[in-house]
User: What shape does this take?
Amino acid sequence: MKKGIIIALILMSIGFAAVTTSLVINGTINYGYDSDEFDVYFSEAILDGEVRSEELIDTNKKSITFTTKELSKQGDRSILEYQVMNNSKQYDAEVAIECERLTADGQESEQEITSEYTEITPSPKSLTVKAQESRKGTITVELKKVSTEEFEEKFKCSLTVNPTEREEEAKEYIVDNSCENVAEPNLGADSKLIPVTIDDDENVTKVNKDDESWYNYCDKKWANAVILKDGKVAPENDPIDMDDIEAMFVWIPKYKYRLWNVNVTNPLYNAHSIEIIFDKTDTEDVEGVSCKTPMNDNNTQGLSGDIQACSNGEYMTHPAFISLGVDGFWVGKFETGYKDAQNTSEAEKDDNNSDNIIIKPNVYSWRNVTVKNMFEAAKEYKSDLNSHMLKNTEWGAVAYLSHSIFGINKEITINNNNQNKTGYAASPNSDQSKHPGDNGNGEKYNTAWNTENGVTASTTGNITGVYDMSGGAWEYVAAYVAEFSNNDSGFTTEYLQKIEAKYFDVYDKDSIINGYTKMILGDATGEMGPFDEYGDGDNKMRWHNRWYADISDFVSASSLWLFRGGHFTDGVIAGQFYFNSITSAANKVGGFRIALAPSN
Assistant: This one.
């Protein structure tokens, strides 16, 4: 009874704030150079996740003016994401960002104006915008203290720009951000993989690999291929019968991405569109421009100490492609299912028989398997196509591509199907918006993969993407702590030593639950920070990242193996940037995903 009274009193004391903020590029742009050769301007403005460039950016593209949403509770935030473009071909732009509070009438003051109610934070506080490139930043307004009365505050943030002439080496290194360099999907040598297009009516149709209709990553249309059941043949002109399909895969082409959070605690910005350039060539060390991906003698990415060679703002080839020496890999379009299972319990089988693998929508996820059996079943599945259990860095490669202009570019919808069926999406206003444990998610509260709502659970926001990366079953990945001492995974140290290093991501033996600096760049763990520990709706304390507050528990000596995506009961804390750790014993909520990496 007392608890209810206290809560009521707290709610009655909450007021709200409206904050008006302006963001400008300082003064008249006059750098002493031909204005046709050098100009810096705002090219995008996103307020609280909504693109509002035309409304907020002025006609000369030199200023942004916005008003926050209503801030009513302590900790409420309004976030402006802005993009700065440098149209020069010869000069980089060094940009410094400063924010100040204005007087009540909106004028600048010689004295510092402080407030106990709100805080404004630019991130980053400085950035380098290379010639012919763009960079993003954020302005965050946070309510630090509530008020019983409405109030308004005004701020001004200024971007001061200085040009620096480019070195010749840097001028020519990174110039292309188009889709011209997308690596051609590798179908392997034995024609098991059949290139297909998929429409919204679930029609899967064989196409020629040279057909322009197959894929277009600039249009968020990712390449798909299928493997048929033994003895089945794809018709030339008619859709393939879904019953004839054994597995469906999506091509992830090689790319480099721009680093933003190498040191974990001081990101250039939090959730943002990840800047990606498709390229079959590995990055090189060019100071301030690019970083050669840290790899060790085994051609796997080095541990955390090596990442210090890289810097925020530089491009780096994603390590998932280098470790296997390929120009791309195929990822299972759905979680791995258990063939012929008629209900969720029949898919709980701890065996390593690859004949039981099925990868398609509306099947039951294969769960309750030791990691060793997952690994062996995946490795045996299509060995001639280099099939293997998905690694953590490969998960990261898919997640990063999803959160770029070539993907859905936001958090994907959870699969909240409580029967562990693949390819479903939570219905609007259902469990996607609930706290962990709010499990009223029977099958009537979600929709199938090929519906208007179903495609929101895809990495592209359309039917060509990858599904089940939020919710469904936990997905174990082939990633563990070095020198582990338990064997409930089914592995022994001696067994692991016989397997090629490229099939695992191995983390530092000193890793701890919140030790995110032990990450591997590109694995979608530490780069999603900073991290905060707080209670969720079920009153459990958890670590959360700054990318949609997804759960973020790193590997440690007591929880040696990583799993990704979250569970169908996890609500808002699930997502493609969710990661957690466990001992890796067979678990009824734990499944896995398969990748194919045919040699070049």
